[in-house]
Amino acid sequence: MPEPIRVLQVFALMNRGGAETMIMNLYRSIDRSMVQFDFIVHIDEKCAYDDEIAALGGTIYRMPRYTGANHLHYKKVWHEFFQDHREYHIIHGHVRSTAAIYLKIAKQYGLTTIAHSHNTASGKGAAAMVKNIMQRPIRHIADHFFACSEEAGQWLYGKKYSKTGLHVLKNAIVATDFTYDKDIRTKTRKELSLDNKFVLGHIGRFETQKNHLFLLDIFKAVHDRKEDAVLLLIGDGVLKQEVRSRINELDLSDCVVLTGVRTDIPELLQAMDVFVFPSLFEGIPVTLVEAQASGVHCVVSDTISEETVITDLIETVSLAQPAGIWADTIIKYYSGYPRRDTHDMIIAAGYDVGNTAEWLERFYLGISQAGGQNG
Fold this sequence. Notes:
Layout: E1 5-10, H1 18-29, E2 35-41, H2 50-55, E3 60-62, H3 71-84, E4 90-93, H4 99-108, E5 112-117, H5 126-135, H6 138-141, E6 144-147, H7 150-157, E7 166-168, H8 182-191, E8 198-203, H9 212-225, E9 229-234, H10 240-249, E10 256-260, H11 265-271, E11 274-277, H12 286-293, E12 297-301, E13 314-317, H13 323-331, H14 343-348, H15 353-369
Parallel strand pairs: 1-2, 1-4, 2-3, 4-5, 5-6, 6-7, 8-9, 8-11, 9-10, 11-12, 12-13
């Protein structure tokens, strides 16, 4: 049997974030006798998916985190990597802030380069401005342009795509893993002491983009009217302590559960009554696809792309509205509603990982069979 082609996937780290979960869904589903993934990350610490990557046959390489001050060293390390690893012909970059650096270097060593947009904004402030400046040359460097949505593609690459155009690679999931099951819901709620509770839930990194502080204001407005309300916050991140402090300030410590990073996301979604997602900006969040697959009603910010609306379970509220208006929308579901199987809608919308993995596998193999030639 011939050896599989090996594709370099570039990430900041391989924890349970949206883009990382998306690529792992694909990694589990592709024919690894034909295509194998290896990973370059920008962190020394072990991450959530590292052991699984090794078990699936992948190798993890570690690069220094880019600080600006280490610009020359960062470039040097990438040059040294490609000098030592001539076996790679394809690089798929998910870190956009430095993609113009490492994709340009990769091209010098004959690799076909893929840039992948997972978002529709960089945020605000000086750091965001620097990212926007650094990422603009990507459109002139990458051979292929990927994005989780049309909106995310236009934001990063502009409306005109050079050479091959834009490939929308949907943030697909294993839809059957999330199909609603009453027994699982009952079991999970009992384990978390959520019996007879009105459960709001959120999944996401504790960072500015996810808008946790406003989420807590929303929950406070709900809890003031429904004392049996509980908020599940699933995830971890740099703002976790700030969130904890805000929980204490609002006197909500007895009704907010911080679960940390969890592997049982399908079960936790079953336990929720409403999924609340007031992000400042997003591409196509994997968690929102998963939530719809679980049949839970979702109250989300109007900044999230319309491409995320796969089912009629999504209800949008403007971030300009006060927390009380958000609470009004959420409380509509207080008396419950019939949960249903949305599996067919997820598949029809192209969000089942089986079809996406097959397409990506053919794409990589096509590049490889073309001799790894750029473009």
